[in-house]
Design a protein that fits this description.
single chain, 286 residues, alpha+beta, D-amino Acid Aminotransferase, Chain A, domain 1, D-amino Acid Aminotransferase, Chain A, domain 2, 8 helices, globular, binds N-(5'-phosphopyridoxyl)-D-alanine
């Protein structure tokens, strides 16, 4: 099926959607994005994604090109047009183009480029990987210093996924000054007993929307949450580990740099958090 995508106010077949070769997203990675999951045809945590989008834009001196209600309508229309039951919606906003290549930003009234498309992912909630758990390897974190801004500069995370693949793993956790920052496209956690440990928010990591929800649910379920850095050695010694993101929800990690955690199967805390997350976020899906 040819997807219908959204580009600058129009709903078009994906084969007819175009963006200028001078677009600053293309030339300078001068743009931000969001990925929102869809379950049962409804959007998970839309408000969180819309708020983070506004913050990312504002950190780059860009304005929200439409308000959150209008953005919600575009998301919903794409879900409807593409008949998405389970999947993802990708949104990207760039600083647009003034028809040439120049490092200096174009005039503030240059229209931004707004693109949204859907990705159908049947079985997303029941992903087989969640039953088995995934393997991660550690790599050096070589990204820039403003990882709290969700920019489209994803070359290093892409390289990280390739390094993981080459090592026979599913993903990579990045290390800076001896501690884990986050996964290539997800936040990283370890579990010791009833305590969940994850790096505190700062410019070092993306402020995950799934992270915020999962930590809230964990506290409500009387689990202890410690927001602090941890080393790979501490992670290898943990009872459990997991990652969170809009595309994986809560995904158990069963091996870190070749060291199998516990019984080598998803642990009780990770599995329970995945269940709680799916149940609770479906309740508030819109
Ligand atoms: N990635 N950290 C990084 C570096 C990420 O790229 C992501 C999301 C997260 C998790 O954020 P959230 O829970 O809001 O999805 C953490 C998206 C899914 C992606 O790039 O496809």
């Amino acid at each position: 099926m040819t997807r219908t995508v959204y580009v600058n106010g129009s709903y078009l077949p994906e084969t007819e959607a175009t963006v200028s070769i001078f677009d600053r997203g293309f030339l300078f990675a001068d743009g931000v994005y969001e990925v929102t999951s869809v379950l049962g045809g409804k959007l998970i945590d839309f408000d969180g994604h819309a708020k983070r989008l506004e913050r990312s834009l504002s950190e780059l001196e860009m304005a929200m090109p439409m308000d959150s209600d209008a953005l919600l309508e575009v998301h919903r229309e794409l879900v409807r047009l593409n008949e998405i039951d389970e999947g993802l919606i990708y949104l990207q906003i760039t600083r647009g183009s003034d028809g040439d290549r120049d490092f200096v930003y174009p005039a503030a009234d240059t229209p931004p480029t707004i693109v949204l498309f859907t990705q159908a992912k049947p079985g997303l909630a029941q992903a087989p990987a969640a039953q088995k758990g995934i393997k991660v390897v550690s790599i050096e974190d070589q990204r820039w210093g403003r990882r709290d801004i969700k920019t489209v500069q994803l070359l290093y995370p892409s390289m990280g996924k390739m390094m993981a693949k080459a090592a026979g793993a599913d993903d990579a956790w990045m290390i800076e000054d001896g501690t884990v920052t986050e996964g290539t496209s997800n936040n990283a956690y370890i579990v010791k007993g009833n305590t969940i440990i994850t790096r505190q928010l700062s410019n070092d990591i993306l402020h995950g929307i799934t992270r915020a929800a999962v930590l809230r649910f964990a506290r409500e379920a009387q689990m202890t949450v410690e927001e602090r850095p941890f080393t790979i050695e501490e992670a290898q010694d943990a009872d459990e580990a997991f990652i969170t993101s809009a595309s994986t929800f809560v995904m158990p990690v069963v091996e870190i740099d070749g060291k199998v955690l516990g019984a080598g199967a998803p642990g009780g805390v990770s599995s329970r958090l995945r269940e709680i997350y799916l149940e609770e976020s479906l309740k508030s899906a819109i």
